[in-house]
Design goal:
By secondary structure, this protein is of the alpha/beta class. The chain is about 45% helix and about 25% strand.
């Protein structure tokens, strides 16, 4: 059966108005086109839905049987279409993003605030985690995209370079390196060093760029805020990417450039390959790109 929304609307209009002329007008159709719809519906169903007379049109037993189902089908379609339009017009929906902690606490909140102000009906989910966690969330379809550092290509995922993050030395204001205009890698060696965990992209990039140089590890911590507090107390120095320096804006900490050209952390937009993002995800992606292009 080639049942369409037009058939349902025509059938219900005629059932309600009991008159071909008025029902055709209600459906904005010519009477001949309207009659053809009703005739086609009955022929496809193999049943007569209306008894016609010169004065009145009435539902048959089969017509009354079909009336409730037709009304339910049309209501379900209109609801589904309304919800689709709400998503397309960004009145409803959901967008989920995973991001490195340095982005989730730094640049991204301002972008999300702007997105929410423009599209208050869209639910936003944010997952902050290390690169491997972010990539796994994309692979499991729990997020629409991730902002992370990808060490190597991952099957089924596409990467787009978002920005390149440079690194800086952070130390206490009383530290000898606080007076340097630029710090060389060898300058780091004599001093106690506050490491981030080996699972972090910051640690991995630093060790790769410094090899075979070895630093005098003082402590190893998981979180940037902890590293900042330790540096502020003069317990050691550290090397931090520019996107994470907001955590180190403390009165007792100074930031100095590190002269190590090979030490750059690339941040990528990572999303499923070959999958069209939702309208909401596409809009948020554009806002993320614009925030880094500015």
């Amino acid at each position: 059966m080639n049942l369409s929304v037009k058939h349902l609307r025509a059938f219900l209009a005629l059932a309600r108005l009991s008159n071909f002329t008025r029902a055709a007008e209600a459906c904005h159709l010519s009477q001949s086109a309207f009659s053809a719809l009703i005739q086609g519906l009955e022929e496809d169903a193999g049943a007569r839905f209306f008894d016609r007379s010169t004065r009145r049109v009435e539902l048959t037993a089969e017509g009354r049987l079909f009336e409730q189902s037709a009304a339910r089908l049309l209501a379900d379609f209109e609801l589904a279409y309304t919800e689709l339009r709400d998503h397309v017009d960004l009145r409803k929906g959901r967008v989920a993003v995973a991001a490195l902690p340095s982005l989730a606490a730094g640049t991204l909140p301002k972008v999300l605030a702007g997105f929410h102000a423009r599209f208050p009906g869209i639910e936003i989910q944010l997952f902050d985690g290390l690169s491997d966690t972010c990539i796994a969330l994309v692979q499991s379809a729990r997020v629409d995209f991730a902002l992370a550092s990808a060490g190597s290509p991952v099957a089924g995922l596409q990467t787009e370079l978002l920005c390149s993050d440079t690194f800086h030395v952070v130390c206490h204001t009383s530290h000898p390196l606080a007076q340097a205009d630029t710090v060389l890698p060898a300058d780091l060696v004599p001093y106690p060093f506050i490491h981030l965990a080996r699972s972090t992209s910051i640690r991995q990039h630093l060790e790769q760029a410094l090899h075979p140089l070895r630093l005098a590890g003082m402590m190893e911590v998981e979180h940037l805020a902890t590293a900042a507090a330790l540096v502020a107390q003069g317990l050691g120095i550290s090397v931090i990417p520019a996107l994470a320096l907001f955590q180190f804006q403390l009165p007792d900490i100074v930031v100095r450039p590190l002269d190590l050209p090979g030490l750059v952390r690339n941040i990528y937009i990572i999303r499923p390959e070959g999958r069209t993002p939702s309208v909401a995800a596409r809009e948020l992606l554009e806002m993320v790109r614009a925030s880094f292009d500015a």
